[in-house]
Known about the structure:
This protein is of the alpha/beta class and 298 residues long. The chain is built from nine helices and six strands. The termini are far apart.
Amino acid sequence: MVAEQLGLEGMPQRLYACTPSRLNTWLDCPRRYRMTYLDRPAPPKGPAWAHNSVGAGVHNALAAWWRLPERERTVEAAGSLLARGWLTDGFRDDAQSAEWRERARAMVERYVARLDPADEPLGVERTVSTRTDRIAVSGRVDRLDARGPELVIVDYKTGRHVLTPDDARGSLQLALYATAAARVLRRPCRRVELHHLPSGEVAVWEHTDESLRRHLRRAEQIAAEAAEADEAYRERRGSPAVPRPRPGEGAAVDHAPYDEMFPPRPGNRCSWCDFARHCPEGLQAAPRKEPWAALPAE
Length: 298
């Protein structure tokens, strides 16, 4: 008697593992998504950006400040941490780097002067994660505060644009962080805050359970599209008809076999794309910016 072969019906669906950044990259440009997360070796990126160096320096200094013993959390300590950990990538020259080191130092010191060193956060650079029956999402929160019985997501921003409550409300990243933090720590988390250090402004949004569910459903929809494209990429990549780059040839990738699955979305953002030089449509859509062009104005 021949045993009947079992089918796959009823088997659990494979979870799509992701971060908010991965989901947002798919939304912004599927081609950039492919080059960031799927192509191996990945195409070489363009030059580093000075504004990313500023952002990383500020984030690192604030994280290190909270890790100091409480008695050492002074304004001067925050400035020293910024200076010691300063990154010089992307600046026009040493003079511009030095100027921005001092501006960033002042920025951090102004911000820390408004903080209570004894108001210990629940987490600094803390990883939170959650899952549904479709996705497993994780990310790292800049700061997780406990205010009364509830948790608050705090995200530091150093860009040129002052942010609004609408930016906080519409942030998929912050909503997913809030959902994950609530599930991990079993405490309500509905408030999300964007702390804009250059201006000192704080953009706040108070989510409802329903608005958080809407963001989670949106994340699942984005993930479903990306997961389908990922699987098609793996199948196409394994086909002999699609040439694979030889070791050391990661920069030269023929987009044609993948354009249907990962179409470019050319626009003004292409000026800032790390992979612009590998994308003819992106190069035509917007001129390449200088690595220091996004530094905030005075």
